């Protein structure tokens, strides 16, 4: 990757002789062609719009300029060049159809130039021509037409020593070839990664983004003409712009996926609408209709790219859990890609700057680093999950032992409770008869004393039984389920409860349900407690349930727009007995214990009058096997 990037800059500087812009014929007389190349700017030519003149026409007498806004015409430039030197002219792009004469000799013909759309045939390619200056003045005549486009691309030619021109062409060819091959290789690599990890859609999005930018680059730079010299101009132009929009759309899908789709959905919907609408326009409409709006399309794309990059940065800042190195690298790379597109836009229809393909290569390099960091973290979490699994196995064995001890204890205490109850019943019966017979004596007092003593003993046994019943010694039974099933069950059960407070309960998740292996009853209990809390603190509002995958974990969220929680209670809200409304303070404590039994975590975000969001995560591996 570093070699490719280094070569790109070398091809721009070391391997290419510096170019000097020539805006008037006199500017060329100051250039030393042994060390410099001239970029013949459009301003240097005389333009004869609406007329297709040949060198013979100019030799017979200089024609007068005609319609400057016509879609066909003739450019003419006369330069004073040293005689006897072999020169080269390189055209980075023909103007849809053109003929080039130098000193009266036709050296290049691209497409078919005509003064009518019927006789016109567009074609775009790279071309280089060579000539020897054999007279004091060198005449360059160019006929061009663009009946297929709202405007013709200006005549952009490089003039210089033949060796310098050949060296420049070679450097450009190697540069574009390396960039294209690198992008295609990256696309194949990430697509292969997606085949092995189909749950990571970010691999697929990035592979498609690299593929489309390589396709757009090879058409935009006209390198495709070396592979498909007879490519239809209309087809190539449609593919070029569709590929451009698809590149940015899939690149943002990649970034959205890496950030767990935390970006506002309207940005995703806007991208889908822009992408599908543009495809329809380019596929259905002819170029003469959609090319007048090419600039508008690029401006809309610039706005989407800029807003998308800003939203990605804002999302990372807003969500603390996204401030990880791999997420920050993704955001930085997308900001860089947006800057590259802005730079390229500034050069559009001027001195072309092709910055997006190179920026995509750098983004791919950064993406590889992000992927490495993410895999390393995943591996550490898997090791921790395996350790937790071994710990849970040991805990389950201990719980089985404790369960047997508890069963023995309950059997023993039930037997012990019969004795005081029998004594109390007998003594109470005797005492009742003595009171009825008015025969209260010392035995009566002894009977009452026995009743009191056995009552205290029975109370002690009840306290022991209560203590055992409150212990959280349970064996976790795991079953296969999925996020959709759990959320629907919780929403259906709590909907009548929420309706009493005028609240609605909705579920917002992705298109696919996520498989899990958990204790479904416990997770349902967690959701029930959280929904009940949300409903108790919300009137005529919304309670929203959601779930999604995040690396090797699944997160659930319960959000409300109610009264919120005092910030002073947030640090201790999961402790027993802590309550902001005078309750028992057990609900959130039980939720935390049940989630932690699954090796998960739970957190809460809230503010007074700002609603509350409670999120808990459950670890999982591919296929839903619970760690």
Architecture overview:
The two termini are 37 Å apart. With 627 residues, the protein is of the alpha+beta class. The longest helix has 81 residues, at 356-436. The protein has a 5-stranded mixed β-sheet with strand order 1-2-10-5-8, covered by helices on one side. The protein has a 5-stranded antiparallel β-sheet with strand order 3-4-9-6-7, with no helix packed on it. Helix 3 (162-196) packs antiparallel against helix 4, helix 3 (162-196) runs parallel beside helix 11 (356-436) and helix 10 runs antiparallel to helix 11. It has helices at residues 2-12, 55-60, 162-196, 201-220, 224-227, 233-258, 265-284, 287-290, 294-318, 325-346, 356-436, 442-470, 483-500, 520-536, 587-597; strands at 19-22, 37-40, 46-49, 72-80, 86-91, 98-102, 105-110, 127-132, 137-145, 157-161, 479-482, 504-507, 515-518, 542-550, 553-560, 601-606, 612-619. The chain has 4 domains: 2-166, Jelly Rolls; 174-377, Rhopdopsin 7-helix transmembrane proteins, CATH 1.20.1070; 388-470, Helix Hairpins; 479-624, Heat Shock Protein 90 (2-Layer Sandwich). Mean pLDDT is 78; it is low at 7-16, 348-352 and 623-627. The radius of gyration is 39 Å and the shape is rod-shaped. It is 52% helix and 16% strand. A hairpin with a 2-residue loop joins strand 14 and strand 15. 31% of the residues are buried. The chain is built from 15 helices and 17 strands.
The number of helices is: 15
Low-confidence stretches: 7-16, 348-352, 623-627
Radius of gyration: 39 Å
**Oligomer state of the chains in this structure:** single chain
Measured between the Cα atoms of the first and last residue, the distance is 37 Å
Tell me the structural class: alpha+beta
Shape: rod-shaped
CATH architecture of the largest domain: Up-down Bundle
Highest-level CATH class of the largest domain: Mainly Alpha
- Please summarize the sheet with the most strands: 5 strands, mixed
Total discrete domains? 4
CATH topology of the largest domain: Rhopdopsin 7-helix transmembrane proteins
Beta strands, count: 17
Provide the β-strand percentage band: 15-25%
Q: How helix-rich are the residues, as a percent range? A: 40-55%
Biggest sheet strand line-up: 1-2-10-5-8
